[in-house]
Amino acid sequence: MEExxxxxxxxQYTYPISGEQPKKEFLGSAQNRQCIFCKRGKSETSFKKDAxxxxxxxxxxxxxxxxxxxxxxxxxxxxxxxxxxxxLQLERILIRGKPRNGSPKYRPIxxxxxxxxxxxxxxxxxx
Length: 127
Hints:
By secondary structure, the protein is of the alpha+beta class. It has one domain. The chain contains two helices and six strands; from the N terminus they run E-E-E-H-H-E-E-E. The chain is elongated.
């Protein structure tokens, strides 16, 4: 592995924990769409849906990618997104990110106790 690899920052995004969401930002080109994963272009696949760069369930309502096709978004990444969200459930509560519906809740298997938070506040509840 090469040790002197230089990376170029292409975008900086401030993740909103509370308050208003930033305006929508799209990375890539709307005119020359080519999926960065499968390499297919507009003539070979569709780009109808907005592809979140970071899952909406982690609070992202504003950062999207023009260059992710519907097929890769739905059939490849959606399969793993639920596993990722379950894995990060406690972190989602502690950062108090705003999910699409309700608020994240962590409940151990076979337990009546749970941990939840109130999006937009500093409140984390342990019951």
